[in-house]
Amino acid sequence: MTNEQLIKNLSVPAGKIDVILDTDTYNEIDDQFAIAYMLKSQDKLNIKAIYAAPFFIPAKCRDIPDGMEKSYNEILKILDLAGEKIDVFKGSLSYLPDEKTPVISEAAEDLVKKASAYSPEKPLYIVAIGAITNIASALLIKPEIAENIVVVWLGGNAIHYHDTKEFNMMQDIAAARVIINSGVPFVQLPCMGVVSQFTISGPELEYWLLGKNPLADYLAKNTIKEVKSYADGKVWSRVIWDVTAVAWLLNENDRFMLSRVIPSEMPSYDYRYSRNPNGQLMRYVYNIKRDELMDDLVKKLLK
């Protein structure tokens, strides 16, 4: 890929595009918002598939396979509430064992197949909002697809933050390193220090979403229930991180966020960033316009 084409593919796409969402949906309450936001943005986003990503939190699942399976079922639940039919594929049952060995799954194999039909001039966009194992595995299976896709990942923390101990990155650092080393056009939305700006409060959920329609009502109740488990009776807000990764594809004229092109940063196994010796450029989001994005999200959820 030429440097000119790379810069173009690191820019917000014009026109309608094909996109895949890779999500550990059962892990949190924000993946559900991201799926809903994507479903409500189909004037711009042609959704080719949704992949269930692996995760493990003892309070949520027995092990990594159970986390992926629960995420798969939660994706189907959101699609049912939205009245939508999208192809859904099960993802990895483990994280990468190293930076050379893929984890074979329905999702990884489907991405290899789909991405092979695209090109640098007309890429397939991947929005990844969990451990990036499925996408890294596909790139290890067939490295040539790197030129045919653009990866937009919510993962890691801001460069200025004191470490990279962020859930999506910590789960599978090897996969994150594979992605950044692969040559794929890569857009990063860091969590702490950047996307942590994108919060919603209880009163907002109750005013805007509660009881408005089955999907909006579920999103509101699910979030309120989760927060009450640790902050009942307190003033609170909740970050709905994953919405921002979808919003990157809708960010014409920087309406939702600000970003810049920088030399890629490589996450290390000791939870720090270092400059990528390969020197490839990436796009780095450094500011979220909270109210502008929240307004668009709410309006779409109420349609």
CATH architecture descriptor: Alpha-Beta Complex
Number of helices: 11
Count of structural domains: 1
As for the CATH topology, it is Inosine-uridine Nucleoside N-ribohydrolase, Chain A
Low-confidence stretches: none
Integer-rounded radius of gyration: 18 Å
**Class from helix and strand fractions:** alpha/beta
- Percent strand: 15-25%
- Main pleated sheet: 8 strands, mixed
**Average pLDDT score:** 97
Please identify the top-level CATH class: Alpha Beta
For the secondary structure, the number of strands is 12
String of helices and strands: HEHEHEHEHEHHEEHHEHEEEEH
Principal-axes geometry comes out as globular
- Cα distance, first to last residue? 40 Å
State the strand order across the main sheet: 3-2-1-4-5-6-12-9
CATH superfamily: Ribonucleoside hydrolase-like
Which bin fits the share of residues in helices?
25-40%
How does this structure look, described?
This protein has about 300 residues and is an alpha/beta fold. It has a single domain, classed as Alpha-Beta Complex (Inosine-uridine Nucleoside N-ribohydrolase, Chain A). Helices cover about 35% and strands about 20% of the residues. It is built from eleven helices and twelve strands. The strands form three sheets. It has an eight-stranded mixed sheet. α2 crosses α3, α5 packs across α7 and α8 (about 200-210) runs antiparallel to α9 (about 215-230). It is globular and about 50 Å long.
